[in-house]
Amino acid sequence: MNHSEHTSATWSELQHFVDSSTVRHDLHTTNFAHPNILDTIPTEPSRTPYSMDSKRRKTGDQDISALRLASRQKYLAEREAQQLALLRRQVAEEAEEEERLGDKLSARERQEFRNNRKTLELAEARNAIDDSGEGYILPDADYSNKHEALTKRHKDKVYEKSEVQLWEEEQMKKIKSQPKLKASDRVQEEDYEYVFDTSNEVQFQVDASTRVDVDKQMLQRQLDEAEKRASSIEDVRRSLPVYKFRDELLAAVDQHQVIVVVGETGSGKSTQIPQYVHSALDSSGMIAVTQPRRVAAMSVAKRVAEEFGCKLGNEVGYSIRFEDKTGPKTKIKFATDGVLLQEAKSDPLLSNYSCIMIDEAHERSLQSDLLLVLCREVCHARPDFKLLILSATINAAHFSQYFHNCPIFSIPGRTFPVEVLYSKAPEANYLAASITTVMQIHISAEPKGDILVFLTGEEEIQAAMESIEETKKKLGSRIRELVVCPIYSALPQDLQQKAFEPAPPNGRKVILATNIAETSVTFEGVRHVVDTGYSKENTWDSVRGLSSLVITPISRANADQRKGRAGRTSSGWCYRLYTRAAYYNELQPENIPEIQRTNLDEVVLSLKQLGITNLLEFEFLDSPSSTSMIKSLENLYALGALDSTGALTRLGRRMAELPLDIKLSKAIIESEKYGCREEILSIVSMTGESATLFLRPKDKKVAADAARKRFTSLEGGDFITYLNIWNEFVESGYDPGWARENYLQGRVLTRVRDVRDQLERLADRVEVPESSCGTDHIAIRKCLTAAFFTNAARLQRDGQTYRVLANSGLTVHIHPSSPLNESRPKWCIFASLQATSKEWMMTCAPIEPDWLVEVAPHMHTESSISKLGDNKKMPKVLQERSKTSAGHNTTIKSGMPTGQK
């Protein structure tokens, strides 16, 4: 093809392109999209087109560059003016805030204000230089000429090419003329693994003069991170709703002795108010903040210490059972209600504290209600004492009325809208429905947002975990990552912290929790709440003397609290596994206070120790039934803790020092008489934790039952069985591996060890001398009989059931988990009665009937016992089994290891 043919073809292609082109908006092709473009293009190639004219194209590009530069300079000038105006406004606002707050500002805030003022001064001084015209002003240069001069390159003269150069060009043309390889024929980079030959590494030597100090580098990095974290924490604190009401709140605290602070979820009342009050009150006394649960006390204390800028345990600390993380410098102390009540027993006026804050008071736990009763008396005795009752919206007026119509200070919450979804029909199995709902949300809902599921207890949480994990394995990689995090009071702290960690990238976290997650703790990132509508409550029947741990429907107040957990950080959803009609017609408005549904033996003993004598006429926040109160007074009198006038005896004062059930406290005191303190301390510690001690996996039930049977004592019952387990655990060196091998919960045994250490210190405090009876189990059983003689039972004629000597002859059964369920001795004692499908005796021990006369002659006489004498009509099979049981000899591993630390 000659040159003219080539030019004609090119021109034809150009015209075809113009005819077929659509309107385009690119800067360099606007003319080609114009409808009149054909008028400007010649029909013959007599003129050089614009696209082929290199000189014209270069000039156009230079014009565009100049326009871009001018536009950029204009934008920077406007941006500078805007930023300067914002800085002036910020400095003015900071000056007003500094004048208003004065000494309340922190050193960091003052430094930040000074830096901003200095920056403004420098910026205005710079502008003043530009405005005055002083200094050098560079004239505009000819950018085209300047660019041409800078980019000009030397061009060699054109010489004739050598033979070598001609040969190289020939070879290159041949290569280019070869057909291209298909994509499938090309060698891909990932087809071969790159292997690095370490022998070819370049060796370097560090210049000593430039060596980086690793320690200094790490320290600087830590300082930078701390500064960044402090800045972030301060921003969060200022964003909380309570921050806007700081001055008004402190003014109210200054004017009133008692204040009820009502704060919705997310208002910041639990973390911020203690710090505000600390900054305003006299620092002579501590501020105590009570929490109903151990988990809440630890987590809130950790957060406040971080905001306070101190190490946990210094200015901010916490105190829970078995763990006291406070010191001489502590000014803000978070504690459980029970810990503060124990302190009040030795210091009824709480003289170490200038202010008490009772958080989550709306839960109406037994301990918090007792604290309110105590603090009311302290307010009367100490005019300088301050009391703040922190509550949700419910019960605020009731609290105010109890404290002589004290003011109510309301703080709005920072909640986002939550969409509520009710189940169309009642769910027959709420546990299975909750697991299904979790998977529905995870598979179909948007990826963002964790899931919080409310269940009733540890057993349900463990079952839900197993089911979700099994479903995850079946679905495999078809679903995103789902991390299951349990949380309940008995869970170890390190496992509890996993629930507070962020979810993995592109994954989701599901938190399985009891009602502990309603108000006490906060999980960031939760947007989905699954509400089963149930919780587990302990109720007490004072007439029959038995407790019932019952799964009951929650109240509407609880349901609203659960819903609010989905709207902490953004909008969310609440999936209620019950109908809308059930919410309005079946759920109670509020919870029944625990003081009206629990055993009052310990309550009465504590109030007696605090000097409150006339309990039947005492003004409680919500008074318990007179029947329950009288029954507890009778029990304490029978045990010798009260005299005939209702006053505390020496035995009663010693029992009150022990934070236990009154019968277990009596057993420790009585161990002095029978010389078995070491064994009784071990038994009492194990009894309190026995509910969660044994493991029985579904696939290893036979092995677990065999391991448990190895510790069983038919002669000593459950109490001696617990002692055998403890002694072997001590001999193993407190080895968790030994616990796993024997299907026992290692963390429960660790907690037993903590309980026993504490009880040993308290036994020394109440002057119970050290003693050990070795393998003399009769001394141990007599000591237990001296404490549990009111819980004695006699086998009935049917050989299956027992009749309780007290409580109007209630018919009961030995629990199937007890070793005595096989031997069924004629006489036995039990630690408690539990009502489920039947009335069960829990934690039993066989006794001799004449022991009852020996340890409690005021309650059991020889004549009353002889009337119940040997039952001649007892079945022969049972008589033979009883004889076999009496002759059975069980070795008890004992001795001084029970007291070993």
From TrEMBL:
The keyword ATP-binding applies. It holds the Pfam family DEAD. Residues 250-412 form the Helicase ATP-binding domain. Keywords: ATP-binding, Coiled coil, Helicase, Hydrolase, mRNA processing, mRNA splicing, Nucleotide-binding. It comes from the Eukaryota. GO terms for biological process: mRNA processing; RNA splicing. Residues 884-901 have a biased composition (Polar residues). One of its GO terms (molecular function) is hydrolase activity. It is an enzyme of class 3 (hydrolase). One of its GO terms (cellular component) is catalytic step 2 spliceosome. Its EC number is 3.6.4.13. This is RNA helicase. It comes from Alternaria tenuissima.
